[in-house]
Amino acid sequence: MADPNPNLFDGQGFYSDLQANAGVHYTHGVPPITVYRSQYNIGRELVRRASSALMMGLIDAHGQPTRFDNINFLFIGPSFTALRDQTRNDLTVFLESIAHLSFNEIKDKRNYYVLNNNGLHNKKLADIKWSQLLVNHQEEPDGAFHNNKYLHLLIFDEAHWGISSNGNIDSYFKQLADFLDRNFAERRRRPNLLIVKVSATIDVLIRSVDNYAPVDGHRVDWNALRQQPRFGAPTYRAWSQLDLVNDTRAELLKAVTLSARSDLVVQEYINVIHRFFTWLITDGVPPNHTERSWDILSNILPNGDRQAILDVACATEYKQDSKVVLVRLDSIDHVQRLRDQLGSIIKAVQSEKQIGPRFRPFEVVALAGDSDSLWEQLSDKARRCFGNAEPIGGLTVEKLVGVPCILIVCDKLAMGERLTPSCMAYDIRGR
Is residue 1 part of a domain? Predict the structure, then answer.
């Protein structure tokens, strides 16, 4: 499929400064989305590989891009309902947003489905609408070949997930392979089928890929390509860039269980913050902090003498260079306890007459269990960083730039969630 207008995706007419990783917001009657240049270029590279290496019919006999009347999508992801729903919503917005550019003629004829891989459990091809269309749209009732007007696209996200022998994915792909073999034997034609596997641990898939195709010809390695500006992802924050905290103090090592370690970490944070804020209230001798939690909190706490700290903490807005830290604990109970205790300590300081309710040195956000949305957990001071309006599409961790914040999670961030580039430290002692 040809670019709808290549000039739209190159230069200042479509994208602002690449170094700022800015993108375009489509505003054609649907919630806007952003497409980054690096994402679009990776997409073009995938299409190029599909056209040249896979030879799957994207170029006709005259060397021209094939024009499809219909596109049949299937997205398969890990067995997480939240991720499935997120992908479904994002896909809907994306398809509506690009309709005015390249898919006007087919926007009412596309079919797309988003499934968890456990949605394939004990399913036959005929049980999945995507593969029904793949099987059925082979010939018109009069026998005329119709397949060339359909593009069947299967995207297997987090493709390393659940690929065990005889598992849901394995069984479904075996059925698909059997159908393709039988179809080719009978008709000597293959459907316009493109299967894209996406994984950050792609080496898990190399053996299976190598069984039927040369790896180099079918692999787009974004990690290698992103060294080039056109494929780069400047906002990506890798774990290797963080201060990874996992100390070996005797007290932690003596803890037999993860729960016990996590409990010690929670109490350490509470003690450090309580001691620091007590000093702010009493103006006594500055505390001597030796705990690792102090090293982490120093990324988000104002610095300087007592008055300088209070001036920043009581200001109406946060500094633009404010940082974020991430703390991972063993249980939802621990996440909620740390969140509640830190919040209570801040409120206690706000109640002091000499300090007042404007005191807000940082935000406390819990991302676990029944926690409110990220936006709902922010103070008015933090919301001013976003013009007092939640970003369209919702506030995500990646957008927490300029907001000093301690993010408290159980297990990990949500799958697909990116850290903000302002994140400085990751405390995994409780895990």
Answer: no
